[in-house]
Specification:
Blueprint (H helix, E strand, L loop, with lengths): L1 H19 L4 H30 L1 H24 L2 H26 L4 H14 L4 E2 L6 E2 L1 H27 L1
Antiparallel strand pairs: 1-2
Helix pairs in contact: 1-2, 2-5, 2-6, 3-4
Length: 168
């Protein structure tokens, strides 16, 4: 618990500048939330790149294993050896499943900053709610952060695709 309090104090020291920068408290809230969403995205992307780099050899070996057993299964099929085909195809499918779930697990590495960001926002803004026009409903820190985070992810994807196209 002491570590989390320390972490929130560090985040406060950096982020509150953006929340207080505009004169309007509402504009400050949205700017700060957008900066927090961007930081969460950037740390998540760095984390996933690091996780893939650390597991690069294993992933490459699994891909080679998939290709090898897939080729063997096709060769067995062409030779008419049904039992060899089933055995090789089963091994290839197992390797594919392992590789698939490894990549999903590694992709989850991009999500951990969200929990810290949302925890900090709860610590700071749990009492603040915004009226949603024409509905009578209110929204707190979670939907506002989610809107900013989705927007950052969407725009970053567009920017990255544009950069990749311009480099090729």
């Amino acid at each position: 618990m002491v570590f989390i309090a320390y972490l929130y104090a560090v985040i406060d020291g950096f982020l509150m500048l953006f929340f207080r920068l505009p004169e309007s408290p509402l504009a400050g809230y949205w700017l700060g939330t957008l900066v927090l969403a961007f930081a969460s995205w950037a740390i998540g992307e760095y984390s996933i790149a690091l996780a893939f780099r650390m597991n690069k050899t294993m992933i490459k070996e699994e891909n080679l294993r998939i290709d090898h057993f897939q080729e063997l299964s096709f060769a067995a099929l062409r030779a008419g050896d049904k039992s060899a085909f089933k055995a090789c195809n089963g091994i290839a499918n197992e390797a594919y499943g392992k590789n698939f779930f490894t990549q999903i697990t590694l992709s989850a590495a991009s999500l951990w900053p969200l929990f810290i960001s949302l925890g900090w926002m709860q610590h700071r803004f749990s009492d603040i709610e915004f009226a949603i026009p024409l509905t009578g409903w209110t929204a707190g820190y979670f939907p506002t952060f989610l809107i900013c985070y989705i927007m950052v992810r969407f725009l970053s994807g567009k920017i990255m695709r544009t950069l990749r196209k311009s480099q090729s």
